[in-house]
Amino acid sequence: MDIKSTVREKYAAIALQPKSVNEQSCCGSGPQGTYTIMSESYEELKGYNPDADLGLGCGLPTEFAHIQEGDTVVDLGSGAGNDCFIARAEAGASGKVIGIDFTPEMIRKARENADRLGFNNVEFREGDIDDMPLADATVDVVVSNCVLNLVPDKSKVISEIMRVLRPGGHFSISDVVLVGDLPSQIRESAEMYAGCVAGAIQMEDYLEFIRQTGFENITVQKQKPIMIPDDILLEYLTKEQIRDFVASGTGIFSITVFAEKAGAKARPAKPKLELAVLGKGEACCGPDCC
């Protein structure tokens, strides 16, 4: 399947449908079931705007991103602008927020939201997150919510994050990862790929990409299990296959990961929670974070 075209088509449709429909599936891939599987509530966060919240996320990365007044912040896969507007509330009038999305319909929706809110320091650029329309070393903070799993070459995206961050900059990214193997019927499903599940990779591989790129102080800020309801699984598996899948112990998790680019920039950018910093070979956070 052509992953890029499939994802663009799905998310173009999502941009035009109500949040209530998006929340009924894995990351808003379609009207399967009646469950909010992954998304978390932004309603308590400063800067939240309901019109920009399509219910597509799997975490709250902006809450953990330690954005400071005057920062330049980039949101990868910015959708209708939800995380960008939260980031603006932290970066203030002296900061700058840039959203990147490769779906024209999402870009139009985000720009309409920004215009209606009167924000002149939030902009949205159409482009691929594995080839960002940004200059080197121009960004303080990168955030992303349930987007890297949609990109086949995740290591390239992480390299791009390293390129655009200034020395001492950092990222906070929420994404879906695996411990164990998904059944082939799910891995090969375009619908489940666009739904943020089939494109997920092993947690250790995900963290290793970050290590190999050269990021430091890699920390899992939050981790939670994702349970796919049987009525969605039945679209792909028989009841017997579902029992085997559950018995296999395969875990699907939403994680929020923090990491820093080496450099001399002085800033107290430390995770809010007292978590263990990951070393090579470790795949999870401290005992109190999950």
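^ that was protein a. below is b, sequence first then the tokens
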Amino acid sequence: MVCMSLPKSFSPFAIKEKLEETGLKGKNFKFLTDYSRRQLQSLFEAGEMLEPFWRSKLELMNGKVLATLFFQPSTRTRFSTEVAMIRLGGSVLSESNPTTSSSTAKGESLSDYLRTVSNYADVIALRHPNDEEVFASLAGARVPVISGGWGNVTHPTQGLLDVYTIYRALGRFEGIKVMIASSDLSRARSGHSFALGLAAMGAELLYVGTSENAIPQTILDKLKAADAKVTVRNDPTHEEFLDSLAEADACYLPGCSVPKDDPAARAAFLDKIKPFYITLEALEKVKKKTGKVVGVMHSLPRNDVEFDYAIDDSEFQLYFQQMAFSVPIRMALIAGMVGI
């Protein structure tokens, strides 16, 4: 006879209990290092439970309303956040141009705007170009606020879906090294949010950038507080960059946040990014040398000077999978913040 010793918690998975374990309810979502490894793990497990419904519908948020307030352009973040709420059974109030079509055009402060919208919504997703203004205004909100990208520093829902992609692709974080590479790490809010999430989960980080456009001190301080394993290499030659690539299990490209209507700044970005270019041939050489399939990740939209489009249909491509995983993990995030 086999005698089993089962834990007291032995029972079928319950999404409500898993969401409660995240500790997200009623809180603003600002930085991934605000949460413990166990809380993020619970969020990822809730995301897995919700994956079967990312193209269908549940009734977990029936009667609840999400307001998306985007002061900057967005396709992926706004649409995936809104779709996540719809898939949960909730409703969406969408404002994609508040400086023109909301009362902010008449001088309403961000604090008052958030307080006003709190009367109509149960959770707010906010994108804004000025992180200092946001942090000074959050007290106005009466419902939890999700950062959909604030200033150049924090974009935790992008970071969250990127960490979740690693979780689903590799199944672990211990012993993993991820390279975050950009000629302008001063603006790489998605890359930094990814780094904070990886640090919280115990992965090793390799930053490759330029000394001219360095990592913001706020991010370095948070990585230090999280006891992150971080290596920073600046101003590489193309060959040095490829040597770093061979050390990594995945490479993340935060992209360019320089607007198209700033041609001088954009031209400077395009010139400085040349050493960071990744080809399919280079990835295949790394695989032959190390045996590793280094996944290429990107926050999108992309520029054709960042990497070879031939990677799109290869085993190294992860950037389109990131988009698909964005819906279930944002479903888990919203449900955890609002509560069910």
